[in-house]
Amino acid sequence: MTERYILYGMAGSLYTAKVRAYLRRNLIPFDEQKAGGERFLGHVVPKIRRWIIPVIETPDGELLQDGTDILDHFERGGFSENSIYPETPITRAAANLFELFGNEGLLRPAMHYRWNFDDVNLPFLRNMFRDVLPNGLSDDARKAAFDQVSGRMRKVTEGWGVTPQNFAAVEESYADFLARFDAHLRHTPFLLGGHPTIGDYALLGPLYPHLGRDPAPLHLMQQTAPHVFRWTERMNMPETFIDEETVAAGGKLFADDAIPETLKSLMRFVAAEYLPEITAQIAAANDWLTEHSEIAPGTSGLENPATREICTTTFNWRGQEIGTSVFLYRFYLLQRLQDAVQKMDEAGQKGVRALFAETGLEPILELKASRRVERKNYLEVWG
After folding, report:
1. Which residues, in sequence order, are CB contacts of 265 under 8 Å at separation 6+?
2. Per-residue pLDDT of the chain in tens (383 residues, 90 and over written 9)
3. CA-CA distance, 161 to 166, in Å (whole number)?
4. Angle between the 67-76 and 89-104 helix axes, to the nearest 10 degrees?
5. Could you tell me which residues are beta bridge partners of residue 190?
6. In this structure, are residues 267 and 361 in contact, taking their beta carbons and an 8 Å threshold?
7. Is 115 within 8 Å of 153 (Cβ atoms)?
8. How far is it, in rounded angstroms, from Cα 56 to Cα 239?
9. Nearest alpha-carbon partner for 101 in 266, 265, 338, 270
10. 163 in Cβ contact with 175 (< 8 Å)
11. What is the DSSP letter of 44?
12. Which of 132, 245, 263, 352 is the most exposed place for a label (fewest CB within 10 A)?
């Protein structure tokens, strides 16, 4: 009998999506259990020490938490036919760049299009959020629980800089991204060629459960970016879809000397839209660390270790000063990009820096918090 994994998550969860897609594509047997179920609340949460998804329970009972760490666990085990980490320097750096951007750079449109279109989305969301509510609730109790959860998520949306004053800017930015990604996917099945990388799985997080599944943004994507919508379907397919007209047929990734202009356009978008934010967050974190120099290694320095936000900051975005929360996890992903580049030989680093300079992204290779971020006992902590 085949041993099966358990995925604890939610159909509409941004970070569950990339794990589910990876499991499907690599034919890893699993069952998905809702994060409001008795097993999750009574067994998993006490061990993880916070309510967070996704979590994988292995057949021998080991718990894995965090989408990136889960995928790395399976990569080390040789579960994927094609590694999600490219072997050549430029494609490897690009994959890690979009791992960061996919996880963190599309949160504003993901949250805006979920929580600010109640006239279209609300019936769907009420049903979907049953996945994270306890079993056995009456209709009135379920409605009250949803109102509480959705109220908290609406506040999180504001904490990521989405306010009525910048709704239009969020929508313009997202339309720009969709147009660029759609143009790119006209000629390639995945972000970097013939099979998904860590960059694809990270981008799927916001682009499928939020922006490619909730009613309002789903309609927008289908109308304005059909190639992106088709990519969300392809990312969730266990079988390989072969389109002989694409330039990346045969499962190969782009060669380092053949990076298409459409990918460079996406990288320029990241430079314009996300680089100012991560720069401001690094500065804020370093100021915060200066004020909290007593923090012991292996801790977050927060009163509640399960808390993710250390402080807030502001930055200029599309001509507006907006606020955003500062999370250690973003620096953890940024380090992964920088560490990957640091391990390359001199020629590889030179090629990566040339591409990042051409697309306005070279500063991201030098942005560093004054202390490294590590993951220990399912939590992000300072090294």
Report:
1. 180, 183, 184
2. 468 999 999 999 999 999 999 999 999 999 999 888 889 999 999 999 888 999 999 999 999 999 999 999 999 999 998 999 999 999 999 999 999 999 999 999 999 999 999 999 999 999 988 888 888 888 888 888 888 988 898 998 988 889 999 999 999 999 999 999 999 999 999 999 999 999 999 999 999 999 999 999 999 999 999 999 999 999 998 877 666 555 555 578 999 999 999 999 999 999 999 999 999 999 999 999 999 999 999 998 888 877 888 999 999 999 999 999 999 999 999 999 999 999 999 999 999 999 999 999 999 999 999 999 999 989 899 99
3. 8
4. 150
5. 193
6. yes
7. yes
8. 23
9. 270
10. no
11. I
12. 245
DSSP-assigned states of every residue in 255-298? PTT---HHHHHHHHHHHHHTHHHHHHHHHHHHHHHHHTTTPPTT
Q: Are strands 55-57 and 30-34 parallel, antiparallel or unpaired?
A: unpaired
Residue with tokens 């309002």: 216
Between the alpha carbon of residue 203 and those of residues 99, 207, 211, the distances in Å are 7, 6, 11
Nearby residues of 202 by Cβ (< 8 Å), 6 or more positions away: 18, 98, 99, 100, 101, 102, 103
Helical (H) or strand (E) element with 39: helix 38-39
Q: By the 8 A CB rule, do 263 and 184 touch?
A: yes
